[in-house]
Amino acid sequence: MAKSRQFIFAKKTSALTVFGTMLIMTLILLSACGDSGSSIVGRWDAISIGWVEGGETFTEDVEEGEFILEFFSDGNGAEIEGGRTDSFTWSAENGRLMMTLGRDTVLADYNISGSTLTIAVEESRGTEIVTFRRAN
Q1: What is the percentage of the chain residues whose pLDDT exceeds 90?
Q2: How far is CA 122 from CA 23, 29, 85, 86, in A?
Q3: Which fold has domain 38-134?
Q4: How many whole angstroms from its chain centre is CA 117?
């Protein structure tokens, strides 16, 4: 049975870390995007999450508007989750994304294919992954 997960970009709450509670998937390697991150600029709406836990693979859909990332061209961004908006800074190069939210900095692989963005974060327990659709 899949456990409920907090989005990986949420602020640290109690014992949960920013990227430590959702989407563990050890079998995914993302290809490099190849640009300087300009194509990531825009608003992205999460559509699914997936992770591997205890040898089992889990995937769950995300409701439209439940979790949104917006990347601005000036290197700032907004994370919108549950009606709360938090600011972050970001940079991207060669398929690697660095996001800083408060005191926490996360390095991730990302891939854009058409209107789909996939972000994967390596952690000690595996790789967390979230898939987004470009929002209008």
Answers
A1: 54
A2: 10, 10, 24, 22
A3: Lipocalin (2.40.128)
A4: 9
